[in-house]
Amino acid sequence: MIVQTSRDGDIVLFYRGDSPRLYCRLRRPDGLGWLQRSTKCNHREEAFNKAREWYDELRFRAKLGLTTDPKLFSLVADRYLADLQREVDLGIRNPRHVRDYKPVVERYLKPFFGRMMIDEIHNTRIEEYRNWRDTYWVTGPGGKQRIITYWRDGKEIRRPMTRGAPSRSTLIAEDVVLRGIFQTELKYGFIRHWQIPTITRPAPRRQNADTRRAAFTLEEYKQLSAFMAEWWQSGRNFHRRLLLMLYVHVLVHSGMRPGTETDGLRWCDIEQFGRRPNGVDESLLEDTAAEWLRLGLEGTGIDHRPTEGGQLFSLAISVCGKTGARQLVPTRCCQFPFYVLRTLREGHLGHSVDPEERVFCLPDGTFQSADSLRQLFEPMLRKAGLLFDKDGKRRTLYSCRHTYATFSLLYRKVPVHTLARNMSTSVAMIERHYSHLTPRLAARDLE
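Predicted structure:
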């Protein structure tokens, strides 16, 4: 029911019928229709004054070239997530983007920016957010939380909270989401180019921080291999344990990123080429790979040699992950675990494996993601006494990738540029995280 109009009908005050409060409709100065808002007032004069203030603000925004229909940050963030999901459904995006980005939006960005108009977020607000985010798990909203709970592969996981400011890499990853939300508002016309705040990379927290990554030494790798050879047969879920053993050695000898590059790996992505001539001695690492498989499969009836006479081939693996589609060449040692995986699967099927089937499956075809195998990996390392390196850094599945880089530099003498290309990273990252190996690489020249 209309109770009052003003400004030649540009302001309309009315009751909706389902609320005692007054609402207003304001004609947009750009001629693109009307805006409707609740005045949250019961008294006509108070409601009318508020409506006139909003109308004058709209006219002022129109003169400045600003949008006359600003949106709340939370609404734009929801649209960003909806667009992200649509791109995943169309096969344009990797599903991990929704999995990784949605928690950032819901836990951090919406609680801080949610009730702000999207075009009112300027550089000052971004700096305020940075300060709030740094203390979130210390004195902020998460400060009193002792246990963090999340779901992985349909199971509820609970672990103790770790306190402290987020790492620089975490903040950089979260900034990708924030920029994506501003690009969404730009795409839908909720903001102009010049209104987007500057979101720069956070400065390094410590100039002389130790950036080396937790990896395994050759002696520790041999220790781990010997332990896994007995461990996988010593408990329940032995097929899953065997798969983890094979998975670890694939990572150590390929440098693939666990999860982002291994989860989608299919048999048709593995190409065999370059048969190795007879009479060529295996390297130290190839001897190690052959030995752990012999020990690990002894008495099981599983043959670990990929060809008659144990000859090895070169492999080319096509993966798609963090840096997009790429092809890598692992060491010939990868021939062993891939051969065992294929043999077990084909033995269960009674015929050749489907080329489109994913590689890291149990013999019955049940796929095992990196997240699933990670639940076995850390307890296994703890039993083996290898969960932490000599500097107290905790090892994860990613440590296998770092081990590949270390072994490639120390024992295979792979040039840094070649290694960086094969691992799909930059030379700067290799030099930054593995610079502690420099003296050992130059030992011949220094002695």
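Summary: The two ends are 94 Å apart (CA to CA).
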